[in-house]
Amino acid sequence: MTALATTREGNRYRAYGPRQLPAIGQRYGLSAEVVESIDVIAHVLPFRVNDHVLDNLVDWNNIPDDPMFQLLFPQAGMLADNTTAQLRSLARRGWPRAETQRLTTAIRRDLNPHPSGQMELNVPMEAGSNFAIPGLQHKYRETVLYFPAQGQTCHAYCTYCFRWAQFVGDPELKFATADPSQLVRYLGEHPAVTDVLVTGGDPLIMSTARLTAHVEPLLGVGSVRTVRFGTKTLTFWPGRYVDDQDSADLLGLFEKIVVSGRTCAVMAHFSHPREIDQPLTIEAIRRIRDTGAQVFCQAPLIARVNDDPAVWADLWRREAALGAVPYYMFVERDTGPHDYFKVPLPRAVQIFQDAYRQLPGLARTVRGPVMSATPGKIVVDGSYQSSSSQRLYLRFLQARDPGIVGQPFTARCSPHASWFTELDSFEAPHRVLAALDSGDRRLPSTSRAGM
Question: Please, what's the largest Cα pairwise distance for the chain?
Answer without folding.
Answer: 64
